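Z., the sequence and structure:
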Amino acid sequence: MTFHSSAFLLLLSWALAAGSAFAQGRGGAPQTPAVAGDSTPRVETAGEKEEKISQTSHTMRLDGREIKYTATTGTLPIRLDNGQVAARMFFVAYTKDGEDVKTRPVAFLYNGGPGAATIWLHMGSFAPKRVEMAAEGFQPAPPYRLVDNDNSLLDVTDMVYVDAVDTGYSRAVAGVDNKQFHGVRGDLRAFGEFINGYLKTYSRFPSPKYLIGESYGTIRSAGLAQELQNRHGIELNGITLVSSLLTYQTLSPSPENDVAYAAHLETYTATAWYHKRLPADLAGDLKKAVDASREFAFGDYLTALAKGNRATAAERKATAQKLARLTGLSVDYVERANLRVDPGRFRKELLRDKRLVVGRLDSRFTSTEGDAVNDTDEFDLSNSALQGPYTAMFQDYAKNELKWESDLHYPTSGNVYPWDWNEFQNSYMDMTEPLRSAMSHNPNLRILVNIGYYDMATVMGGAEYNFAHLGYDPTFTDRVSFTYYEAGHMIYIRPSEHKKLKNDIAKFIHGSRSKT
């Protein structure tokens, strides 16, 4: 997708208690109100009304060509081991009319969180319609508009946008404990059952199959590839990881985890470059600046951090000077931070002299807060800038164009906490090995990693580090490709990068389809 500061700090504390760091969530969505006199929040469930399927016919123009398509909106039942319906997962599918399903690709798209509805990818990325933002993807003034999406993927693949249980319109049914879906394994099981159910219901088993996840949706995709193989015998052609992570280790700076400080450095450099805080020799070319940062981050910098208090005064000074040069921060600040600049502090410090804070989801954004002294941000403008437009336009779109209604609330950030980290309790959440295993079992599975230079939620150095440890044989490394964008976490909100992202994914799908 894809925090208000208070929500983020609370969720981060939960994640760190499990040895993990929180990736993407959306603050600001009201929780389900409690019944008067009852302190227990009311839990909404899927009922008979949510079983409705709506199909509507539409036409759009894409690259000068007319495309007729069908939008299918509704829920599918999720059955677990006893065969009874445990939940219903909401989806919107866009299928191009007149295509042969045996050769027509189908992609399943979802956001992350955990707990984020798929409204962000749905209303911003590749569907036939998108929310119109202001120039360069910044916050628009109301009233908001939904416009035709010139960067839709409908000319390349059919798309199915899916909400996780207890986000959007997806819910457990009455009498079923919804907490079983609020965890790593329960979440994977639900998505696996949904995909298997969709392929069966709409006769899409022969189709080339893709996953397109964002943020925690990428770590879900890594585990889901294995879940689909092991439980359903379903093999994928490709996985696109938009704003990627495979492990929370690279997002969790701590005294015993220096690799996370190194992983953030490239993004600090890119952010400082955008805000013109780098020295003249690094200020011209973004890629050159990031390349220099990468070389230092996983070379001399990580070596210096590993020495800890054994480093000499001269070594500390030399490291501080290089770090300051690549971050736009002062040498004094870096030294006082013990060469370890926390991402929250960086966002506050970089433009402190202007009383500005840079965004977390997109560090191009800046906001003015009430306090320019402390080290924690009040809110993330790069998150809240999308909240109003996306929420308003999706609910209007679902009712008036997709002809689907429900009495349920549509939480963009669902109440799925406490999240069950399952086998990752007291360790870093990590799906590197499940993805490697899925690739080992399926030698045709290819991976595309999409990275935003200004994404401070899932940082580029973290993604690069993850995949450098995925597998050591060419059979793995040759099937992973990277693309970079001058954008943040939601790459698609910046028009120039949205077009590039669409073209890169289209090329990936064309190149990974079966040639039979």
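The CA atoms of residues 34 and 101 lie 46 Å apart. The longest helix spans residues 286-307.

Let me know what you think.
H.
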